[in-house]
Every structure is written in C-alpha cells, then in structure tokens.
Amino acid sequence: MAQEVRDLVKRYYPDFPIRHCGKIYRDTTEFMNISYGDVIFIDGLHYMVLRDEVERRFGIEDPKYWVKRCRLLETGERKIVKLVFYEEFQMKLGHTEILCHRSPQKEARILDLVRGDMRFMQGVSFQDDVDNNMRVLDLIRGRSLDHEVYGIEQDHETYFRESFPVILEKFIGASEAIGFLHSHGEKHGDVRRDHIWVESKTKKYRWIDFDYTYDFYQNPFALDLFGLGNILVFIVGKVDCTVGTMSEMGFTKDDIGKLSPDDFSIIFQHRLVNLRKIYPYIPEKLNNVMLHFSLGSDVYYDTVDEMLDDLRPCLDILGD
Amino acid sequence: MNPKKVLIAVDASENALRAVEYTGEIVGNSEEFHIELLTIERFPDRDLFATDEEWKEKCAEHQQAFMDFLAKARQILINRGVLEDNIFERYIVSCKSPLRTPPLACSIGTNIAQEIMNIIKDEEFGTVVIGRRGVSKEVEFLFGSVSTKIVHYAKGCTVWVVS
C-alpha cells in the first residue's frame, strides 16, 4: 500500500516528503485512522490528506476528524472530503434542548439541488467501497462573515452608515438562498454567521455545511429562520450586544438600565435585539424586523419570504 | 357557516384529548351536530435515520399512535353522549409517507395550521376546536403553535382553544 502511495506521489506530487506517505483508503469507516499522507480513493481519483479541518469558535479550535483537507493528486486541486460521521447530540437553545443529527445523505441531496448555484458551496457525493457517503467539496477561498464584519475597523455609526448597506444587501441574497432550500422542502440546519463564507475574490456570500438536521418536524424551518434573525442582529450591531459587551463598549449603567427583558433575544436572552435603544440612528423599520426575534414579540415570521418582505424596503431608507 | 359543523383538529397528545373531552361535554347528545375528528399525519424526517427500515418502523409507530388516538377520541365522544352517526374521522396522509403511496390530497406538513384553515374554509366548518399546549414563548417560537396561528388567521368561524 505504502509503495502505491509513493508511486502516486512521485508521479503527481514530487515535492511531498516520501517518509510521510501513508496508506490508500477505499473504506473510510475508520476516519480517525486516516491522516496526513494517507490517500482516499474516490471514483477513480486519489485525494491525499493534508490535515483534518478545524472549526474555530469563541477562540477555541475544534478539530473535525471526519473532514479532511486534501490535495487531488491527479490535478493538484485542493478539496475538502467529508466522511461519514453519524453524530447525534443535544443542542441547547436558551432553555430548550433539541436533538441534532449529522446526515451525510441530507448534505449530498442539497449539493445536488444547488449544483451551479454559487450562493452555496459546491461539491459532489460518492459512495466508498462499503457504501459510506463521501462528499468532495470545492474549497472556498475567503473568510467567514463574522470575521469579515469584525475586520471592519469603523465605529458603529460609521459602520452602519457606510459598510452596513452593502452587507445587508448581501445578507438579503443569502436569506433568499435559504428560502430557496425551504421551497424545495430542505432546511440548511445550521444557519450561523460562520457558515456564510465570504469569497475573497468576488465578495459573494456562500453557505457552507448542510449536514445538520434535527427532530423538528412540527416547525421544520423555524431554526433556519431563527439563525437568519441572529445573523441580522449581529450584522446590524457589528458585535453581539450583551450587557457585558455594552459595558466594554462604554455604555453607561443608565443606558443599560433602560433595557428590559423584552428587548433581548427570545432564545438567547442575554443578547440585545432592540438595538435602536442604544443606536437611535437605526431606522425603526429595520429595528422592527429584528424585534420579531425578541422576547417582547407576539408575532413571529413563519417563512423567509415574510421576513424579506419587511427587510427589502429597509435598503431604500438606509443612509437617509 | 354552520356553527354546529365542528372540526376537532387532533394529534395524539394530551392537549388534543382535552379538546375532544371538552367538545363531548358541550355537544352531548344534540342531534344537529356534525363532529369531525381531523388528524394530519406528521412523521420524523428520513434524514434522522441511518436506514430506510428504521425510518419506516418509526413512521409505522407514529401512524399507529394516530389511529389509536382517533379510535379513543371517537369512544370519548360516544361516552359523552354524542351520536355515533354524527362522528366522522379524517386522516390526512403525509406526502412524504414511506408507508404507502400518498393520495393527491396529502399533507406537505410545513404549515399544519394553514392546512387546517383550508379545510375549514373549503368545507364551511363553523367551529374549530384545538388543544393548546400552554408553552413558553421560546418553545412557541421554536416549535410553532398551531393553535396560536389558527386564532390569528381564522375568519368566519368560531375557534375553541382548550388548554
């Protein structure tokens, strides 16, 4: 096996250190064993593993051992190969626990649905020798939306007046993409600001990671909508505004004292949603969209379209 | 609209049971009522299961629970004096059902409240009865509330919300 990899490396990747050549895998069940220098054989092509992908959240690196950053030896292209990992876990949202699953079949199905639609990551799925579903994904060069927003060095008012209108327009496009999935009976499953990838060259917003699903058939799209609401509140606020971050940002106790529980998120009850209370230049119309995600609301959006019907007109009044 | 043409929208929950019991108490043995028990089939997503067999097994369990509930609900109404001939049952199959080929009139399942509203409107039910879970705003936001939506959107009929 090692000789086979060495031969491939000599032919396609001569700069690769021979001593790190590993095995060829046609059965990817034991994905923990597949590491740097190993080669995954998929549909007649050879994907050399360079490293496990890592998710960075809250300053912590979380390795995803079932997701491999690879080099397609035959072409030299970088690819991401996602292997089967039937994870099941309880996700805590506020006081509610929701049973979540990873579903490779769901992700493969959505990849088929969105082929050629650059609002989404692109890729193809294959079965390995023992019918594990592997997804081979194109790499998107760029960074996540939260890093993009954090990287804008402007005070809030300047950000809101100068940078935000473009961000909102792109966010509306990204929301339409989620609406497209819903119209086909699919949900994204993990709508978060770090699952929108901003492509470096084009600055297009592209959704990644569709393999989450959850036992939520009574209200199947509610979590996606909640995720969009969270992202909207984040891009309007430029950060997550909590009592803690507001103190750091220089808001006084009096400012914070004027806020009531109804001003905060219906699920994350430490996160301020009624941002107009601290940034009075936020138009009421835009603020009202965000208030649908607040504890004080009795009316919620049922569909992405309902939210967008309220949000699109906000583009016209920004900058007034 | 005929207020004595009553639709009770039920799943297999305790709340639905209360709605049935309440309706039975109110209607009693009055001859003029038409009582229809409506169940809209809802199954867990296929994606939650590793194999088709596991999924089908779970769906069959759900289906049986719905059927058992309908039989139980009918009996509750009869026990409260409702005339047998005035009780009707309707079971709407999920369009995604793996257990049988869904008929044309199947449930898409993404907006149960709207599906109920359509039946009320098309078939001129004058009264709709529904159980309410009595949940927090957070849970209502996440899981949706069929009763809240029906209260908001119902037109031309009376809504009994039993909690």
Structure characterization notes:
The complex is a heterodimer of chains A (320) and B (163). Chain A is of the alpha+beta class. In chain A, α4 runs antiparallel to α5. In chain A, 37% of the residues are buried. Helices cover 42% and strands 20% of the residues of chain B. In chain B, strands 3-2-1-4-5 form a 5-stranded parallel sheet, sandwiched between helices. In chain B, α1 runs parallel beside α2 and α3 crosses α5. The longest helix of chain B is centred in the middle third of the chain and has 28 residues. The model of chain B has no long low-confidence stretch (mean pLDDT 90). At the A-B interface, β7 and α5 of A face α4 of B.
Per CATH, the architecture of the largest domain in chain A is Orthogonal Bundle
Helix content of chain A: 25-40%
Helical segment tally of chain A? 9
| The named CATH superfamily of the largest domain in chain A | Transferase(Phosphotransferase) domain 1
CATH class of chain B: Alpha Beta
- As an assembly, this protein is heterodimer
Number of helices of chain B: 5
Number of DSSP E strands of chain A = 13
Strand ordering within the main sheet of chain B: 3-2-1-4-5
* Total individual domains of chain B: 1
The structural class of chain B is alpha/beta
Strand proportion of chain A: 15-25%
CATH architecture of chain B: 3-Layer(aba) Sandwich
Q: In whole angstroms, how far apart are the ends of chain B? A: 25 Å
